[in-house]
């Protein structure tokens, strides 16, 4: 025992003495705050304690993020290849639906190509594919963790950004900017943008 730290037998997990109860509590990398925080409504994918740890040791999480990026890159590339592939004919239902949108635009005198593009983008990629990407449990018998939800949100956001006509300015405050700036550098940080 050194100071108020103990090392559990056979483990590499630092322990803190619980003076009040006379027991030992495990903690990971960062000592949790002394005062318990009141429960807050859940925001984002990180809980209160996880958010503290994420702020305390960003290098560890950045390393984990980059290794996760390397693991998932092939799967994400394959997903986008399947969704955006032109090697197979467009499904008839999609072709007929897009033809209907073109007819409606013509019938109502809408000649702005951006408007027609937005109609098509909002219907198939944003309403269909984004919903499946963010909620794989709708199609597959899987459960997703908070971490997986965060990864799927980044992939879905990248796909949404790819479907818009606007130029995207990335910075520290943009949703994907921090990942791309902290990653490999510049626009290629996650490789998904």
Automatic annotation (TrEMBL):
Signal sequence extent: none
Cellular component GO terms held in the UniProt record: plasma membrane; semaphorin receptor complex
Pfam families: Plexin_cytopl
Domain of life from the UniProt record: Eukaryota
InterPro entries, sorted: Plexin (IPR031148), Plexin_cytoplasmic_RasGAP_dom (IPR013548), Rho_GTPase_activation_prot (IPR008936)
Basic and acidic residues bias locations: 31-40
GO biological process: negative regulation of cell adhesion; positive regulation of axonogenesis; regulation of cell migration; regulation of cell shape
Disordered as annotated region, ranges: 27-51
Gene3D superfamilies reported for this sequence: GTPase Activation - p120gap, domain 1
Plexin cytoplasmic RasGAP domain ranges (all copies): 13-174
GO molecular function terms listed in the Swiss-Prot or TrEMBL record: semaphorin receptor activity
Protein name in the entry: Plexin cytoplasmic RasGAP domain-containing protein
